[in-house]
Each structure stands twice: as structure tokens, then as C-alpha cells.
Amino acid sequence: MKILYFSATGNSLYIAKSIGGELCSIPQMVKEGTYEFSDEKIGIVFPLHAWSVPPYVVEFLKKATFNYDYLFAVVTYGIYSGAVGKHLSDIADEAGFEFSYISRIKMVDNYLPTFDMKKQVAKEPKKLIEKHLETIKSDIAASKKGTLKENCLDKAAMNYMFRRDGKPFNKKRLKVHVVGEGIENYIYVDDSCTHCGVCASVCPVNNIEMDLKNGKIALSDKCFMCFACVHNCPAGAIHIKGEVSSARFRNRHVTLKEIIHSNNQI
After folding, report:
1. Contact 103, 74 (CB under 8 A)
2. Burial code of 221-237, b = ≥16 C-beta within 10 A, e = fewer?
3. Rounded-to-integer distance, Cα 240 and Cα 247, Å
4. Helical (H) or strand (E) element with 121
């Protein structure tokens, strides 16, 4: 069994590791130019973005070729999963393959403009993650078939996000600057930055450049707002405009080294 996964703060990586099999990081596969996969069972594990499949994962799936008996997907999400099952099925139809099984699992929501990470972590036990994970693992082991039940309201919510280009914020605001320059932007770095380079190391699309001479980091136009840089910064120096609190999150079962290895090591 092969598990193809993408993870910014460890939730999806934890699920992928728990399911088992050979783990294949989607960012690594993209950087290697590997898009063909063969196995009896193949799984796709990723976090929900804006109530739908992240554009980065969409692009990967549309390029990929799968040779399988059983293809499944597990989506990690925080509060609401929209119509992600339909979105996945639509992508599969367009790309010429079919999911045998699609499921989802509620975990800590790391979307900083809306949620306080301390409160989210405190609520984690109520999400019964391990119980739901065992059900999903049992389903996969038994090659159970089925997708998510979604209603018209879910599909309308997904379509609303699509009209906003699948992103909750305007991409033109995605710039990085050092506080004090007087530029109001969506992501910014304060003066506690130690220029350690972790932000660049965890970025799955190599979007961050370190300018050590001028004491800045620069973000280009490939960002799809996974927030890996924000949550994994050791100094807590990277911020989102309008964030609810300064608390950050990484799944307790996953190390920073694992995130770096998954997202930026070929």
C-alpha cells in the first residue's frame, strides 16, 4: 500500500503514518517529477483548504497516473468539510480515475485568522480522533467502498469558495515584510526573526527566500496559504494579519524534522 500525503502542521502526516504502508510525500514527488504510482491499494491524505481540495493537491492529482485495485482518500479538517467528497470525485472524473473510498477526520483547525490554537488544542479530545481513525483504518483494511454524504448546502459552500478562486483571501495581499516598514500586508515577520531558515525549509513549494544581508525573508507568488511557515517558525516571528492569537500548532505526534523532510527534502 502506498500513501501519498501533504501536510503543513502534521495532522495529515499523522493520519498517513497511522494508516501505514509506504509513505510518499506529494511535495517530494512533485520535485522529483514522479507522477505514476502502482500498488494494490493507493491512498491520498491531505488537509482541507477553504472547504475544498487545496489547489496544490488538485494540480498533483490532475497530473498523476494511478494503477490500483483500490484508491482511497482521507481528508483532515477542523470545523466544516464542505463538499470535499464531490470535489475529489470531480477531479478524479476529469483525470480519468475513480476513488473507491473517501473519508474525513476532524482534527485541530490551524486556520489562524479564525481560531485560537490554544482553544483548539483544548477541544481536541472531544473530536475523538483515535476512534474515528480506527474506523477509517478498518474500512481501508476491508477495502470498503463509499464516499461522503454531502447535501446541497455543502455544495453551495464549495461553489462559493470556487468563485473566490478557492482561497479565502486575495492573493495580491500575500507579501512578506519586516515590521516597521509601514506596509500593511497579509503575512509579516516581526523583529524576533533569527533568520534560522526553518520557514524556507518547511515550505512545500520553495516559495520563501532568505535575504540575510538585509535581514528579511521574501515570499513570491507560489504561496497557497498552507501556513507551514507560520506554525513551524521556532521564534514565532511570522504572523497572519488578523490572527486570533499568537499561539501556534504542530501535531504532537509529528516533529519539525518530519515536516521539513516531507516538504522540502528530495
Report:
1. yes
2. eebbbbbbbbbbbeeeb
3. 12
4. helix 117-123
What gap in Å lies between CA 72 and CA 101, rounded to an integer?
5
Which distant-in-sequence residues (6+ apart) come within 8 Å of 141 by Cβ?
none
Burial of residue 142, with CB atoms counted within 10 A of its CB: 0-12 exposed, 13-18 middle, 19 or more buried: exposed
Contacts of 105 (CB under 8 A, 6+ apart): 15, 74, 75, 76, 77, 129, 132, 133, 136
189 with 179: CB under 8 angstroms?
A: yes
pLDDT digits (tens, 9 = 90+) for 37-92: 999 999 999 999 888 899 999 999 999 999 999 999 999 999 888 888 889 999 99
The residues near 239 (Cβ < 8 Å, ≥ 6 apart) are 187, 188, 189, 190, 230, 246
Report pTM.
0.89
Burial (CB < 10 A; 0-12, 13-18, 19+), residue 163, is exposed
For 106, which DSSP code? E
Number of CB atoms found within 10 A of residue 249's CB? 22
Residue 3: exposure state from Cβ atoms within 10 A (0-12, 13-18, ≥19): buried
On the CB side of 126, how many CA atoms lie within 13 Å of its CA?
8
175 close to 186: Cβ distance less than 8 angstroms: yes
SS3 217: strand
Cell 512578506 belongs to: 176
Cell numbers placing 161: 469558495
In the structure grid, which three cell numbers stand for residue 83, read together? Answer: 463538499
Q: Tell me the average pLDDT of the chain.
A: 87
